[in-house]
Amino acid sequence: MPYRPRALPRLLSARLPFYYGWVVLACVCLAGFSRQGPAVATLSVFVTPMTEAFGWSRTALSGAVSLGGLLAAIASPFLGPFLDRNGARAVLTFAVIGSGVAAILLSLTPSLLVFYALFCFARMTFAGPYDLGIYGAINNWFVRRRAFATSIATLAQMGGLMAMPLIAHFAISAADWRAGWVAVGLTVLTVGLLPVWFLLVRRPEDLGLRPDGDIAMVREDGSARPAAVEEPAFTRREALRTPTFWLLALFTLLVYPIQAGISLHQVPFLIERGLDATVAATVVSTFSLFSAISGLAYGFWPRRVETRFALLSVALVLASSALCLLAVSSAVEAYLAAALFGIGIGGLLTMLPLAWADYFGRRSFGAIRGAALTVQVLAQASGPLLSGVLRDLSGSYELSLETFAVLGFAGAVATFLVRPPRHPDQ
Predict the structure, then answer these.
(1) pTM of the model
(2) SS percent in the chain: helix, strand, coil, step 5
(3) Backbone angles phi, psi at 217, to 5 degrees
(4) β-pairing, 217-218 with 224-225?
(5) Which of 126, 63, 48, 39 is nearest to 387 (CA)?
(6) How does DSSP classify residue 213?
(7) End-to-end CA distance of the chain
(8) Which residues on neighbouring strands pair with residue 225, listed in sequence order?
(9) What is the chain's pLDDT, residue by residue, as a tens digit (426 residues)?
């Protein structure tokens, strides 16, 4: 059965004085904000009160992030082709409802087993459906303006990452950690659900439009020629045969443990360094703020400069931020380290999805990105678990931060080797 957009988007597209892709981007931004409910930075606010309430170890709590990532790794290769056929609406609707309801139910957690069942599901939606839906929608609707649109989506996600830990923290301070989960879940559902359900459309062609709002131009002989920028068109099978795919996958494997490992454990790490819990929570928001600024700034990365150099800078900044965290002994140093970490995260969230789309095109983006997400979510899953295990074994977070610094520098080497792929037909 062919895809057919809903009546409301068709009506709005015909009457709006601007490109409908901007409506899609607004919906994606709201979904990206809601995505941060089960983010590791949000969970980090719950680490101390929940481990104190139940007597769980940091490793046990971190394992839920890792298992959720494993579920996403299994699901993503199947969700990718579904996204290509049906668009982001169904995928993101499932993600918003799933993570919002799971967060609310987490307030009723009686045991570690129940916590795992609920948070692993929420984490699976974060790592798989949310990622595929957000970037799948952007890359279908934008080509020339893809970097800018991706940076705006990153800005929205970082806004959510800045807000969600604070929402959780103040709810916990006013009541307890159970109230914190209710506040997070209600925020997810309130912000993300209705725009995604009613307004998202798979591709501009479904509304008789073109990517970026370009108008088809006509040659002198009367035939149409595309106004949009030509882009590659790889299938998943073709992409998997290129060195570019595997080098980007290696880069992902090396840097995403840093992103997830530091994000989850930064609050307990700072508390162990003698900082107040409120200061530690605002440090999380500081890194989120700088992630937002960085993500927006990377959106203006010159298109004539290869994306791999942006990824190279991201890896170096993430490695440096891990080293800076090792030196933290005051609130000022914590804010500075968080700002540097945020710059790296903002660049990563903007430039890596852009690299996949630019190198392989939008024809089979969902299928290709779904395969790549298997690596990404497994890398994300390993970071918190690695950090938690090393902390429990050594009694501090120093060894895990040193490990993350090494991974960052190795990621810089991997991305330096990336080159645009050659299509088999060329």
Answers:
(1) 0.81
(2) 80, 0, 20
(3) -100, 155
(4) antiparallel
(5) 63
(6) G
(7) 34
(8) 217
(9) 556 677 788 888 888 889 999 999 999 999 999 999 998 778 888 988 988 888 888 778 778 877 888 888 888 888 888 998 888 999 999 999 999 999 999 999 999 999 999 999 999 999 889 999 999 999 999 988 888 999 999 889 888 988 898 899 999 999 899 999 999 999 999 999 999 999 999 889 888 889 888 765 444 444 444 444 567 888 899 999 999 999 999 999 999 999 878 877 777 788 887 787 778 777 877 877 888 889 889 888 887 888 889 999 999 999 999 998 888 888 888 889 889 999 999 899 889 988 998 899 888 888 998 898 888 888 877 887 788 788 878 877 888 888 999 999 999 999 999 998 987 765
Pick the CATH number of 19-206+231-416 from 3.40.50.12780, 3.90.1010.20, 3.30.2010.10, 1.20.1250.20: 1.20.1250.20
- Report domain extents, the chain: 19-206+231-416
Report CA-CA distances (Å) from 150 to 34, 57, 75, 329.
16, 37, 24, 36
Structure tokens at 251: 């880069």
Distances (CA, A) of 192 to 38, 47, 99, 134: 14, 25, 10, 12
Separation of alpha carbons 386 and 403, rounded Å = 9
Tokens linked to 316:
């170096």
Cα–Cα dist 96/394, whole Å: 38
